[in-house]
Design a protein that fits this description.
The chain is of the alpha/beta class. 27% of the residues lie in helices and 26% in strands.
């Protein structure tokens, strides 16, 4: 039974057109996740890129990974990621036990992250694991032009805030049987806490992309794949 990496990459980005094939450093954006999976071949048996875009497919094939043609019906703006991952599982004949989801919009990851996450995933015997980061902001909503604090009281020091965490998107591990039930983050999912510069990179706009380029340029070679 295999562990596979799935990299979902649509071609229809609205806010940053063709973002998955833009050059981040010396590589197309999607290539960063492909090479990360390849660097962890002691944990990952096969790599699948799922896409509806010919240019993305061409790049993925140039890195000698498997490509699944994603149907238009599950390639829309509002289609959840699990639909594409589930389609991969339903399209291949190999028996898959575990899926590692690598989003191309989170291109930079610590080298040892996947290995550390797999160790915890196996120890906790959970159905899924995902990476999270601690929120450091005072959050609230605006209702009828009035700001309503959510996680603090006015005047409270930031260092005294109750810890809250956000899903940073860097990495997910999930049992294939859960994906087939349309779940990636399951009811017993383990939140893997991390604190790293890369956790703040999630590319959706030109500003996000420029920040990722800045971080990549400033990062030591020891952190790069």
């Amino acid at each position: 039974m295999k562990t596979i990496a799935v990299i979902p990459a649509r071609g229809g980005s609205k806010r940053l057109p063709n973002k998955n094939i833009l050059m981040l450093g010396d590589l197309p954006l999607i290539a960063h996740s492909i090479l990360y999976a390849k660097a962890n071949n002691h944990l990952i048996d096969a790599i699948y890129v799922t896409t509806d875009d010919a240019a993305i497919k061409k790049i993925a094939l140039s890195y000698n990974v498997n490509v699944i043609d994603r149907p238009a019906a599950i390639s829309g703006d509002f289609e959840p990621t699990v639909s594409a991952v589930k389609h991969v599982l339903e399209s291949i004949v190999e028996e898959v036990k575990t899926v590692v989801l690598l989003q191309p919009t989170n291109p930079l990851r610590p080298k040892t992250l996947l290995e550390s996450c797999f160790k915890v995933y196996n120890e906790k015997k959970c159905d899924s694991l995902f990476t999270v980061s601690q929120n450091e902001h005072k959050l609230g909503s605006i209702q009828k032009d009035v700001f309503k604090p959510f996680n603090y009281k006015p005047g409270q020091r930031s260092q005294d805030l109750e810890p809250l965490y956000f899903e940073n998107g860097l990495l997910y591990i999930v049992k294939s049987k859960s994906v087939l039930k349309d779940d990636i983050i399951t009811t017993n999912a383990f939140p893997y806490k991390m604190n790293h510069l890369f956790e703040n990179i999630d590319i959706d706009t030109q500003a996000d992309f420029d920040y990722a380029q800045y971080v990549l340029n400033k990062t030591s070679n020891s952190e790069k794949i």
